[in-house]
Structure formats: C-alpha cells, structure tokens
Design brief:
Blueprint lengths: L8 H24 L15 H11 L1 H16 L6 H7 L1 H16 L16 H27 L3 H26 L2 H28 L12 H31 L12
Helix pairs in contact: 1-2, 1-3, 2-3, 2-5, 2-9, 3-4, 3-5, 5-8, 6-7, 6-9, 7-8, 7-9, 8-9
Amino acid sequence: MPAEKKITWMHIVSFSFATAISYVLGVLSSLISPVLGAPGVSALYVAAAVYVPFGVWMGMWGALAGYFSCFLLGLYPSGYSVIQSLVWAFADFIEALIPAVAFRLLKIDPDFTVKRPGYAKLLPLFVVSGTVLIILGITVQVLWGATLGEPFVTFYVYSVYIGTALAVLGIIMGMLAGDPKTWGVYAVSGIILASVFSGLWGAGTLTVVNFPPPLPSELFMPVFIGWVMGDLIVLSTIGTALLVALTPVIKRTAIYVEKWFV
C-alpha cells in the first residue's frame, strides 16, 4: 500500500506564502483600483489570482489563504473591526473553496495543457498576452494615471478590456483544444461562480448583514458589481495564466493536494 500522505512543513510554508502574497496584492489592489466608498474592495482584485489557483492546487489551504488575507485586509488598511473582518473574510474563503470543491467532488485531475499541437502555442499566447496587458495597464495607472490623468487612464481602461478579451479567447481555445472537463469546470466554478458568490458575501457583509455592516445598504449593488466584474477579469487573465504555466510544475511537487489538506 502507498504511504499515507500527511501535512508537512511545505504545506504550511506554501499556505503562509500564499496568504502573505494575497494580502499584499489585496492592499495594493484596493489602493490602485478602489471601488469608491468601499474600503478594501477593488475593481481589479489581483489577490484572487493567487488564492483561487491555490485552491485548485492545494484545496483547503488555498481557501484558508484567501480567508486570512482578507481578514488582515479588513483590519488594515480597510479599518473594519475584528468581528466585521472575521465575517467579511469568508468572501475570499468562498472564492477559493468553490473551485477546490468542484475539482475534488467531480474527481477531475486539473490538466491545463493543450492536446492539439496546432493550438499549443496559440493558447498561452492569448492568455499570457491578456495577462501582460492587464499588468501593463495597472503599472501605467499606478505610475502616471493616478497623478497625471489622461491619456494614461484611457490606456489603462483599454488594456483591461483588450487583455480580458484575449484571455477569454484563450479559455475558449482551451475548452476546444485541451481537456474540456478541466477548462469547463474552471471557467464555471473558478471564474464565474467564484466571482459571483464571493461578491454576494463580500458586498452583503459590508452593507447588509454584519455586526454592524460598516457601509450603508444602498451601496450593495455598486460594491457587488465592482467586486464581481473585477474578479471576473483577474481570474480570466492572471489566474488562468498561472494555472496554465504552473499546474504541471505544482503537480510534481509535495505541496500538491489531491484531497482537502493532503
């Protein structure tokens, strides 16, 4: 019989790394692309592109990384209370949990490689190009758009739209030329459902249900829309690029989790 897998220090270190990176990216995202009137909420929440793939690779570790990074973000710089942050942080836990559960309950081995040689170079080209455009747009916005305005803001906006379109084309290509189960489950659970349910919990616990809600209830819809749209963009581009590039590598390491924690 094969030796029973156990939690190792590599799981703990990887979880800690994912949490730290997600927190830093969450802080930067909320400062660079804020949803106005909602501290901690970003129209391009890059942190999701870390803990959601970690949910695919490491199960509950990814979900916990999302939770603790969001909890810390709620405390600082968002300024929510400990109780409010504890409740709100389940938004990012849910976001990573949904694809983690989907891949494991459906018993799908994540395979983001391309089966048809003719598409082997095109898929990474679309996904990576879209991701590079997003990152370039964010960089331009940080360095010049936030202080100088036009034309840098316009470049930022168009880079986000075009980058997302390229990445979506790459995802469609993955469904056609790769493992359809992997790409289909990721598109539905790791992008659409993850973004929507995370947005529902996040916006809801900021504006409707908390102890007490830190924001007025009339902000629910603006926060929800900004949250969901931003996560859809980030997960379609940066999150997808990381999964395509790193999944074969991660699966060969000891940190890859087939079940929930091991």
